[in-house]
Design brief:
Blueprint: E1 14-18, H1 25-33, E2 51-54, H2 68-73, H3 80-90, H4 105-117, E3 123-127, H5 135-152, E4 155-159, H6 163-166, E5 172-176, E6 180-184, H7 186-189, H8 193-198, H9 203-215
Parallel strand pairs: 1-4, 1-5, 2-3, 3-4
Antiparallel strand pairs: 5-6
Helix pairs in contact: 3-4
Length: about 220
């Protein structure tokens, strides 16, 4: 159950939503998407908002022979040049004729991201997009999401457990445990006592990765 959750996602922002299992992260996403109606309060959306969404889990039906290309076009009318442009952007152009059921986990996540991008979103909502991917798959997917955020200037709200990989790319971090424990820039969140209590087992790796990212320099 969520209680007294209030925050704002502005154009161009990248908010990472974190919290332990059972904290209500996926429930919050469903409220924002309009899939769950809150008992109190509501969601205020800007005019002309366009949402792109990738779910936490998606398993293609192995008995339905649908290709990646047909899946991207399923139940929506999209300019086919734009479909191919998006496929090139996400690196799935060679998979367009591949059966959806034959994809690896990383390939499927890029297809789901492609379908979300076909809506030309100004808000991209990603519910643990790198779940069940190996380390290389996670790194490639997070880099792709970062590039899309920077190139298209869309707002991103992403649920993730991979703190040491995503926090350094975030403009804001929202820590949820049924209510908002803390929210702010990564530098301030790392010093928050509630955040440290919730993620004590990850703090050594997180601090080492984050400090390295900000304290190194490059020679010309």
């Amino acid at each position: 159950m969520l209680d007294n959750v209030s925050f704002e996602l502005k154009q161009g922002e990248f908010i990472t939503l974190i919290g332990p299992n059972g904290a209500g992260k996926s429930s919050l996403i469903k409220v924002l998407l309009g899939l769950i109606k809150p008992n109190h309060g509501g969601v205020n959306r800007a005019k002309n908002i366009r949402l792109g969404y990738t779910p936490q889990a998606f398993s293609p039906n192995p008995f339905i022979p649908i290709s990646v290309f047909d899946f991207l076009n399923l139940n929506q009318k999209v300019d086919q040049d734009f479909v191919h442009e998006t496929a090139i952007l996400t690196g799935i152009e060679s998979l367009l004729n591949t059966p959806l059921k034959s994809l690896s986990g990383g390939e499927l996540q890029r297809v789901l991201l492609s379908r979300a991008l076909l809506k030309k979103p100004n808000v991209l909502i990603l519910d643990e997009p790198a779940q069940n991917l190996d380390v290389n798959g996670q790194m490639h997917l997070y880099k792709l999401i970062q590039d899309i955020h920077q190139q298209q200037d869309c707002a991103v709200l992403m649920v993730s457990h991979d703190l040491h990989r995503v926090m350094k790319e975030s403009t804001q971090v929202l820590c949820l445990y049924r209510h908002i424990c803390c929210i702010g820039q990564p530098e301030s969140i790392l010093k928050d006592s509630q955040f440290n209590d919730l993620f004590a087992d990850q703090m050594d790796d997180l601090m080492a990765t984050y400090e390295h990212h900000h304290n190194h320099c490059h020679e010309d």
